[in-house]
Amino acid sequence: MPEEPCQCPDCQRFYREHDRLIRENPTLRQQQELNWAALQSFRTLAGRVMEELQKQQEAAESATNQPNAASAAPGAAVVADQASEEAGEPDALQQAMADLENINAHLFSIEALMERIFDVRVPEEVEQKFREVAGELAPDPLNADRLRLNRLLHQTPDLPG
Q1: Dist CA 131 CA 98 (whole Å)
Q2: Is the dihedral of CA 141, 147, 14, 118 positive or negative?
Q3: What digits encode the pLDDT tens for the residues 117-159?
Q4: pLDDT of residue 11 exceeding 80
Q5: How far apart are CA 57 and CA 12, in angstroms?
Q6: CA distance 21 to 126
Q7: In contact, 77 and 63? CB cutoff 8 Å
Q8: Which site among 26, 34, 106, 158 is 20 to 30 Å from 57 CA-CA?
Q9: For residue 138, how many other CB atoms are within 10 A of its CB?
Q10: Separation of alpha carbons 71 and 55, rounded Å
Q11: Residue 46 class from Cβ within 10 Å (0-12 exposed, 13-18 middle, 19+ buried)?
Q12: Burial class of residue 8 (count of CB atoms within 10 Å of its CB; 0-12, 13-18, 19+)
């Protein structure tokens, strides 16, 4: 077990964000709301990007399917060229769209599961316990307990790498 926490940029960014989220949202209710907002913002952004890519693809397809595409719709030819350049190859854009559809399906499933989390309400005494534990989990970054937590977090195999 290493004595120092990992100093790689990814781990450092994770440690800072992890602790910030605990310090700024130290109750069950705040964590519920934070996670719900994060999920919804992810779904909104991924959905909008997918819509934009679909429009881009439709414009490219209509430009290539029209015999006089350059004269009928000059902007569509430019969009088709941009789509080809951005994707690198035609299959890359299709794969990205399929991946985004899968992400949105997974996010929808997570949303359904998270709705159950909102059914849970705890008394103020329990919320106070959340605040106390939050102070222990996300103490001052130079605190010895914080260094130990960093070491433990870095060795957790289920963290995204």
Answers
A1: 42
A2: negative
A3: 888 899 999 999 999 999 888 876 656 666 676 666 666 554 4
A4: yes
A5: 39
A6: 19
A7: yes
A8: 106
A9: 21
A10: 20
A11: middle
A12: exposed
Residue found under tokens 């001052």: 140
- In angstroms, the CA 149 to CA 160 distance is 17
Please enumerate in sequence order all residues whose Cβ is within 8 A of that of 107, keeping only pairs 6 or more positions apart, or say none. Answer: 39, 42, 43, 46
As a residue count, the chain comes to 161
Residue 152 CA to residue 142 CA, distance in Å, equals: 16
Least confident segment among 37-41, 104-108, 152-156: 152-156
What single DSSP character describes residue 138?
S
**Distance, CA of 147 to chain centre:** 26
Burial of residue 80, with CB atoms counted within 10 A of its CB: 0-12 exposed, 13-18 middle, 19 or more buried = buried
Q: Is the pLDDT of residue 40 over 50?
A: yes
Under a CB-based contact definition with an 8 Å cutoff, are residues 114 and 39 in contact? yes
11 contacts: CB under 8 Å, gap ≥ 6 = 5, 150, 153, 154
